[in-house]
Design brief:
Chain lengths: 802, 168, 289
């Protein structure tokens, strides 16, 4: 194969991150070994809901090698509760104090010389519980009373209830020629990265300073909250950046692992490492995703155009409410999808139950909204007797309607949905996808399904509170920073402030800087700097990082180029407007033989200050510029929320065509072909974008066919191992046929749109439609996932016999 | 209570060609011994129940889950980890380079385990088909890539090895 | 997830192992075969033996050989070695067929047949295969050796006929008679997962295609590997066609109590088992020794 030799935006530049990751020199949190480091382990609640009556830690504390045992009460004096974005707050402590609200919730923590000894000590802790009624069904949670209420201050297990309508909803439904009604059940799954959450903290008692190494992100944003919980401030915190073994959103929030490492380090006076094991991560990691019931109605007029969408949603948040309604704000960014639907109603109830709580997961509610809408469109096509592709085309937002304002007030920046659909159909034709069902082997059925979805990207922060009338923390900042520094020899240092999740930030930084400064990438070194660098970074989340980093680099390099031109012009003895910068040098426009290279300019700027005008700050020493890029277009919602403002205007689009093969006798199924065309605006690195798309689709296949967290009536997570939770292996994921369309964003640097979540925003409805197609003669309609063989069997048994 | 059974044992083994020794409790997992005592942190731990494959190493040439092996069981054995794949001059081996060329890794956490599984496969069956490769790596979970580019990299490497054999 | 403490022993002979088992009889001593089933349980602390006796140093537990009319597989034979073995392919081809569904390559490098059988996991393939093959387990104790048929060997999950101070040393499989047909079919959620249901079948047909003898083993449907004896008897004398296979499958599933589990309905598992029995039996009309 040929190695990419182009540079700059659009080139499949090789990855910077690979060298250390391939050679076993990755910088994951657990790889760090500090002198005198101690290890933590936790006693997790065996009960899903129980009052903590007493905790006997004497035997545990007496075990040789144990340095300390702490209960929630012990820590309550030295640390506050976890942060939450909910209004009013749902109180959560890192270590439970009064009661356990889900299996695995930390009841006590041990610090010892080794993790082995810490676990021995955990086994010696004796806890007396008074069991309380367990609620695991969200519909039951709505009606919970008495001791079944997890947070008595709420009076019930309902932690949010709201109903909003935008546009002419009543009119759309009362005048509809046809109304499609369906109910859906969205399964509880989770990001399940290969690396669990981990943190090391080192507290210096003399200075009162914490150092934290953890596989978290947005340390600069979360840091102040973190410090406050520990009764300190940012002047006493340093967060370092580590490699992260996958996050997919889950590690973007603030969770208990680094907080516990920090408080324990302060308590025992030594560095403390806390690494979740897999069982802890699955039961108590605070990283499950949306878990919802939907009642949906789609109003359609006599011309087969969608006029209104009503959604009634019940979401099972788990035991706490850290992310509040963020995953619903997110879905609202594109609840009406790529279609011209002018009216939307969103009736939301969030309940708490005895499960670990939700965190963002690739899509963060957008994928659930996409599933529901696409399923409604397919249902409409069936009821109207219209081809599902034609029905979509008819209702697409047209090219001349961009930037398009959705009923809630969000903007879609650009798009060409027809072109994406046509490209996907052409690829499917080329690969003879449509012929496959005809050639199914005896005893097998083959179905082809299609979905067209929007892929909102570059999050702003209002989604977390715009469904609250009076939010306690109406945050609206989502900054990303970079510092570009040209050394005296012309080589370049780019400092970024975000971690690597698998999303290639160093490669992006090198590639975009090389593009801007028009220098070879080998001249550029990228470093990741933590909070001591003093710059704000929201980090990877909501498919924002590349687009925002590009904005920051563009900002910094624009400032740099102005100064480079000034130095160059001065050296060449001409005026600024007589020179231009290209290919690593400043050249006279009228006589291109007169030029000065970037290294020469750099040397001059570093060493020869007095050659340049002393009173002009343009010639200050050094060539370093930093830039903080804020969201290019976000606006606030109105107070009455009739307009939610612009909160996700950078919107890509995708069309997926999935093919599944089902064994008729056993209902065993597998995905045998997959076509995906994405429009993510300007593509920086095609090979890396393809990687993100494939990974997202693989997770989508997992959600659609294999994965689900299963709780029994007692609130026990019955499949808390990787043997029982179906992360797809190589045998479950087919090779994929990918295509691209680029409609640049008018709002971002270079027109980049985010693509990190793309694959998972589109895959599930395409796969559901494929199952429907495979059983079209039985009128199968997939309204719940995963479609495991047993689930398919159940569905088929509920259908009228042929 | 004290841990009476913690009688430690001295073990000696070869790791990436070097003789190494340690003193371990019987219950110390080989994955922890490699990462903590030998400070070779390239081998990763993802589940500690033998499913994810991130901890895969070679023992006497054969792929093994180091999280399902006690360090004492490795006495006298020949261990190979991802660090041992590098060339003598410290550069990436052709297999590691193939992974980079084909973008067969994103976060990199599963990668060392996959490299060891691939090493075993390519030593025994360089002519493995795509389907064979897909089957051979089915015990290594990857959450980032969707596997296709991993298969591309291993397949490419296999083709090159066969060509080298032919010309040798 | 780290295991609880234990003492570690590595005998170099069967008799040494038996002596150790006797010496450690008061505590909870377990033998360590491949470790691929035991060590995960220890890491979860679901098993906390006080002593582990590593069998990998006992040469007499290894090896695959023919002796008279039996294929003798040493209990410590690794799955991949058995899967690749010529003698096994010729004399017990059902084992080779089933191995495609057993775990993953790396697990099979270490896991042993003896360890797998003594673990007696209800969803594991090999116990059912052994019942269909009419294998005999050779068990050693201080009193000598005894043979237990596969049909009498499995008591329940993790419970077999091996007594506390005994050791499974070999699996003896009657050499497959010429013409016997085998089939193995399994459905699991992902490749390598535990079986949702799996069927091992061995059938002898006369020259006209009538069943002379049938064995049907089931895994994943109960708490031990089952044999569908009523279905086996009902097939004798019948032509092995769809009707006969269906009748056998119906007879088999009627006699099993299927239960709902968190992810799998009883109704599905029953229908799946029925479908796989039909498939396995009809597969015997094509697959042959």
């Amino acid at each position: 194969m040929t190695i990419e030799t182009k540079i700059g935006i659009g080139a499949s530049m090789p990855r910077r991150e690979d060298a250390r990751l391939l050679s076993g020199r990755g910088r994951f949190t657990d790889d760090l070994l500090l002198p005198r480091m101690a290890h933590a382990a936790m006693f997790g609640s065996p009960h899903a809901h129980a009052r903590i009556v007493s905790i006997d830690t004497a035997a545990a504390a007496a075990l040789k090698g144990v340095l300390g045992v702490f209960t929630g009460k012990d820590l309550a004096g030295v640390m506050g509760p976890m942060p939450t974005l909910a209004t009013p707050p749902v109180v959560q402590h890192c270590v439970a104090i009064e009661r356990a609200r889900h299996v695995g919730e930390p009841i006590a923590v041990v610090v010892a010389e080794s993790r082995y000894i810490a676990e021995d000590a955990v086994a010696l802790i004796e806890v007396e519980f008074e069991e309380l009624p367990v609620v695991v069904d969200p519909e039951a949670a709505v009606k919970s009373t008495g001791n079944a209420v997890l947070h008595p201050e709420f009076g019930s297990n309902i932690v949010h209830q709201s109903r909003h309508a935008w546009g002419p909803v009543e009119e759309a439904f009362s005048q509809a020629a046809h109304v499609v009604c369906r109910e859906f059940r969205w399964p509880r799954v989770g990001p399940q990265p290969l690396e669990t959450c981990a943190a090391i903290a080192d507290y210096d008692a003399i200075t009162g300073h914490f150092q934290v190494w953890a596989n978290m992100s947005q340390q600069s944003v979360i840091g102040p909250k973190f410090a406050k919980i520990l009764h300190t401030d940012m002047a006493h915190m340093t967060f370092h950046i580590r490699d992260v073994g996958g996050s997919f959103g889950g590690k973007a929030t603030l969770y208990h692992v680094p907080l516990l490492a920090a408080v324990l380090s302060r308590e025992i006076g030594r560095p403390v490492k806390f690494v979740e094991d897999r069982a802890e991560h699955m039961t108590a990691g605070n990283q499950h995703a949306s878990d919802r019931l939907y009642k949906a109605e789609l109003a359609i007029n006599a011309e087969n155009r969608f006029t209104g969408l009503r959604l009634r949603v019940l979401d099972d948040m788990g035991a706490y409410f850290l992310i509040a309604t963020g995953a619903h704000g997110n879905a609202l960014a594109q609840a009406t999808g790529p279609y011209q639907i002018d009216a939307l109603e969103y009736d939301l109830t969030c309940v708490v139950t005895n499960k670990t709580q939700q965190a963002p997961y690739r899509g963060f509610g957008g994928e659930v909204g996409n599933f529901v809408l696409e399923r409604m469109v397919d249902a409409a096509a069936a009821e109207l007797g219209v081809h599902p592709v034609e029905l979509r085309r008819r209702n697409f937002i047209a090219n001349d309607q961009f930037p398009y304002r959705t009923p809630v007030g969000n903007l879609y920046d650009s798009g060409d949905y027809t072109r994406v659909l046509d490209a996907a159909m052409a690829l499917a034709d080329e690969h003879k996808i449509w012929d496959l069902p005809k050639h199914a082997a005896p005893g097998k059925r083959i179905g082809v399904g299609l979905a067209t979805v929007n892929e909102r990207s570059v999050l702003s922060m209002t989604e977390f509170w715009l469904l609250d009338a009076d939010p306690i923390f109406p945050q609206s900042s989502s900054p990303e920073s970079v510092q570009v520094s040209i050394h005296a020899d012309g080589t370049v240092n780019v400092s970024i402030f975000a971690p690597h999740w698998g999303n290639s930030p160093e490669t992006m930084a090198a590639q975009i800087t090389a593009h801007e400064l028009m220098i070879p990438p080998e001249w550029i070194r990228v470093v990741q700097v933590g909070t001591d660098g003093g710059m704000l970074s929201k980090g990877p989340a909501g498919s924002r990082y590349t687009a925002m980093l590009a904005g920051a680099i563009l900002g910094a390099c624009t400032k740099l180029k102005q100064r480079i031109l000034a130095f160059g012009a001065h050296r060449l003895g001409v005026l600024m407007d007589e020179v231009e910068y290209a290919d690593g040098q400043v050249t006279c426009k009228v006589d291109t033989s007169r030029a000065i290279s970037l290294p020469d300019i750099a040397r001059a700027s570093h060493s020869h200050r007095l050659d340049f005008p002393g009173d002009d700050q343009t010639f200050r020493s050094g060539l370093t510029e930093s830039f903080t890029c804020d969201h290019p277009r976000a606006t606030l919602p109105t107070q009455d929320r009739t307009d939610l403002g612009i909160f996700y205007p950078i919107v890509g689009h995708a069309c997926h065509i999935a093919v599944i093969e089902v064994d008729e006798a056993t209902q065993s199924s597998r995905v045998i072909r997959y076509v995906a065309v994405h429009d993510a605006g300007t593509i920086v690195n095609p090979r890396l974008v393809d990687g993100q798309i494939r990974g997202g689709i693989a997770q989508g296949i997992g959600t659609a066919l294999y994965e689900q967290y299963l709780y029994d009536e007692e609130g026990q997570l019955v499949n808390a191992t990787l043997a029982d939770y179906g992360v797809p292996t190589s045998e479950e994921i087919p090779d994929m046929i990918l295509g691209h369309v680029e409609t640049p964003s008018p709002f971002t640097a270079y027109g980049i749109k985010g693509c990190g979540e793309g694959g998972r925003l589109a895959a599930m409805p395409a796969l559901a439609a494929a199952f429907d197609d495979a059983y079209r003669d039985r009128n199968l309609y997939v309204d719940r996932l995963p479609m495991t063989p047993s689930a398919l069997h159940t569905k088929l048994s509920q259908l009228k016999p042929v | 209570m004290t841990n009476e059974k913690q009688e430690t044992t001295a073990i000696t083994l070869t790791v990436n060609g070097e003789t190494m020794s340690g003193v371990v409790e019987p219950r110390m997992l080989l994955s922890d011994f490699i990462r903590q005592d030998l400070q070779l942190t390239g081998t990763h731990v993802g589940c500690e129940h033998g499913v994810c494959g991130a901890c895969t190493i070679l023992i006497d040439g054969v792929s093994v889950r180091s999280c399902l092996t006690f360090a004492v069981q490795a006495e006298g054995c020949r261990i190979e980890t991802v660090e041992g794949l590098l060339e003598r001059d410290g550069k990436l081996s052709p297999l590691q380079q193939a992974f980079s060329d084909h973008h067969a890794l994103q976060c990199g956490f599963c990668t060392p385990g996959l490299l060891m599984t691939a090493t075993e496969l390519l030593r025994t069956r360089p002519g493995a088909s795509r389907d064979d490769i897909r089957d051979a790596i089915s015990g290594n979970l990857c959450r980032c890539t969707g596997y296709q580019t991993i298969i591309d990299a291993i397949s490419d490497m296999g083709t090159r090895l066969l060509a080298e054999e032919k010309s040798a | 997830m780290k295991p609880a403490p234990f003492s570690f022993h590595r005998p170099s002979s069967i008799s040494q192992c038996l002596e150790l088992l006797h010496a450690l009889a008061d505590g909870d001593a377990k033998v360590l075969a491949g470790g691929q089933s035991l060590i995960p349980m220890m890491n979860f602390r679901m098993a906390q033996p006080e002593a582990l006796i590593d069998l990998s140093g006992i040469a007499d537990l290894e090896g695959i050989r023919l002796q008279d009319d039996n294929l003798i597989i040493g209990a410590m034979s690794r799955h991949n070695a058995i899967k690749a073995d010529e003698l096994v392919a010729i004399h017990a081809p059902l084992i080779s067929l089933a191995y495609d569904h057993v775990a993953h390559f790396t697990i099979r490098n270490r896991g042993t047949l003896g360890g797998n059988l003594c673990h007696s996991d209800p969803a594991s393939e090999m116990p059912a295969v052994m019942r269909v093959l009419g294998a005999q387990m050779e068990i050693a104790s201080a009193d000598g050796r005894r043979l237990v048929s596969a049909d009498q060997f499995f008591f329940g999950p993790f419970a077999t006929a091996v007594e506390p101070e005994e050791l499974l040393v070999a699996i003896r499989i009657p050499v497959s008679p010429r013409g016997r047909r085998y089939s193995f079919h399994e459905v699991s959620l992902r490749k390598g997962d535990f079986a949702m249901s799996a069927i091992a079948a061995a059938v002898d047909l006369d020259v006209e295609g009538r069943v002379m003898r049938a064995r049907i083993g089931l895994c994943g449907v109960s708490d031990i590997a089952l044999r569908a004896e009523n279905a086996e008897e009902g097939l004798v004398g019948e032509y092995l066609n769809l009707a006969a296979a269906t009748a056998a499958a119906d007879a088999a599933v009627t006699s099993i109590e299927f239960n709902d589990t968190a992810a799998i309905s009883a109704s599905y598992r029953r229908d799946l088992t029925r479908a796989l029995i039909i498939r396995a039996l009809l597969g015997c009309t094509e697959e042959r020794l």
